[in-house]
Amino acid sequence: MSKKHFSWGKVYLALVFIILYAPIVYLVVFSFSAGKTMEKYHGFSFQHYADLFADSRMITIVINTMIVALLASLIATIVGTMGALLIKGSHRKWRNALLSLNNVLMVSPDVIIGASFLIFFTMLGVRLGFASVLLSHIAFCIPIVVLMVLPKLNELSPTLVDAAYDLGASRWQSLSRVVLPAIAPGIFAGYFMALTYSLDDFAVTFFVTGNGFSTLSVEIYSRARQGINLEINALSTLMFIVSLLLVIGYYFISKHAGRRNRIVTVKEGDAQ
Predict the structure, then answer these.
(1) Whole-angstrom distance, CA of residue 198 vs CA of residue 241
(2) Could you say which residues of the chain have pLDDT below 70?
(3) Coil vs helix vs strand at 157
(4) Any bridge partners for residue 44, and if so which?
(5) What CATH number was assigned to the domain covering residues 55-260?
(6) pTM
(7) Residue 225 dihedral angles phi and psi, to the nearest 5°
(8) For the range 19-26, what are the long-range contacts, defined as Cβ-Cβ under 8 Å and sequence gap of 24 or more?
(9) Does residue 57 sit in helix, strand or coil?
């Protein structure tokens, strides 16, 4: 009975992965089609990739998107890590209140967040463009980083910090040499998640972009309304490969960090 149940579980998982990845495979296959539509495959060709790299506007938008994503995720990681440390060190009552405020941007609809940022920037007289998009991305990436870093802080043994103080370490030395290395996997996870969210965001960016500045999600939406262009398939394929490499990189970083933490735990056990 258990074997039968287990086999049905495998079938179910296989169906789920097929449903999830079939559209991506379909998109990738037609990015190498010599035709101009996705109605029929017309033979292997790199023409759409050549058109993509010859499209100066699209290349500029890709660069803009990467700059925004990298800057937003970096700043959000720094601020979010500091915020997680602050929440962890605060009183229980204030901790719950701060966590609730942090989660507001996570549970609010993207359309509401985008409209709120648009109204906010309009009130302040901020011109819509690079600055408004960057600030918006930083704002909605910070809660993601906080939620990634906090569990690692909760796993951190207080005795490690106390031992550092007993050995004469200052607050900065304790933070930089004990706390931050211990929660590094959570910080990296927060950074990669923030980077992914920033690259993928459409709803918020659609509200706060302007002055000739655009990101990939907004540009793809605008072009898709005019008809499917297989140049978009080529771009999406490259973005998928980049995302896959990021996931693989994060996996190896997490694996290395986990191995290092196990070594530290074993050494602590031997010392005791």
Answers:
(1) 17
(2) 1-6, 227-228, 254, 256-272
(3) coil
(4) 33
(5) 1.10.3720.10
(6) 0.79
(7) -70, -25
(8) 24/240
(9) helix
